[in-house]
Amino acid sequence: MASRIRQAPITAPRTPEPTHSRGIAAALATDEPPRYGACVGIDSASFELVPGWGSDNGFEFGIVSGQATDSGNRLYVVDREPNPGIVVMESDGAFVAKLGADLFKLPHDIFIDEADRMLVTDLADHVVRICTTDGEVLQTIGTPGEPGAPGAPFNRPSRAVTAPDGEIYVADGYGQHHVHRMSADGELIATWGGQGAGPGQFSLPHNIWVTDDRVYIADREPNHRVCVFDRAGNFQDVWVDHHGVCGLFMTSDGVLLTAEEGKVAFHDSAGKETGSIAVDFPPSDRAHGPHSVWIDSDGSLYLSEVGVENLLYKYRPV
Q: pTM of whole model > 0.85?
């Protein structure tokens, strides 16, 4: 059942202290275990749908196109349109706040790094904004309202993420067909890609995930594939037949999840699909499909669909 949440006052800050207040360098230097999909050994049988999660609230999302959790497993949801902003929720579905209603024009996806900073791409504003989880803008990469020159940042960027060492990678998907590698301060290091179906080219670099030594790109239609590169942008591999692949998430032990047509699929390091969760929710009279997937440090999986309003689901680990 789709999530329905009510508007309510912002709650008091939680403990422990958010890592963004300690700075990214301190957060990256910690000896704490990784929190991205931190439960190991998962597969498609590890989850069950939480029936009616959030449905006892009165608020309805518009189009939900992305979600991520912070270090306290609070959920941040991209409410893309018609009233753009970032909706903050507790893991039980309770409403906390809506951020950026006067800031974002068409937010597309979100990533929360180890320093609890939100990286939000804005399709209509052609920028990547780095914000605290309270909504304070720390940095804007790109010029608001101005698309980059051909091959240059940004023209309707689809997702931005950080690598384990703090570098920033951006899938500049809808207008550029490129991927940009940047320093932790947002300075451009390298760009690769271009429109096409050959190795190192993209039809629509829609999503991105970066590990210590690999960059994974969801290259949506018409290529329908996942492309794998090293951190410098050198082509390594391609996984084909991923129809409508939109979202990527990798667990701490290297299981790559794809949100694609009709399912969330699980893959080993060679790209072999090891299982899937079927996604076949109503309504049946309007086209919609999986767009983003995220697993928090408790092992809960969050899935959103686009095409129809108010499609956000939670699965619990079993």
A: yes
The whole-angstrom separation of Cα 105 and Cα 173 is 17
Cβ(217)–Cβ(173) under 8 Å? no
DSSP 66-104: EEEE-TT--EEEEEEESS-EEEEE-TTS-EEEEE-TTT-
Which pair of tokens denotes residue 46?
């590890």
Tracing tokens 């989850």 back to the chain, one arrives at: 47
Note whether residue 205 is domain-resident.
yes
Q: How confident is the model at residue 28 (pLDDT cuts 50, 70, 90)?
A: very low
12 assigned to some structural domain = no
Domain assignment of residue 146, yes or no: yes
How many independent structural domains does the chain possess? 1
Residue 29 host element (H or E) = helix 24-29
Helix (H, G, I), strand (E, B) or coil at 47: strand
Average pLDDT, the chain: 88
Question: What's the chain's length in residues?
Answer: 318
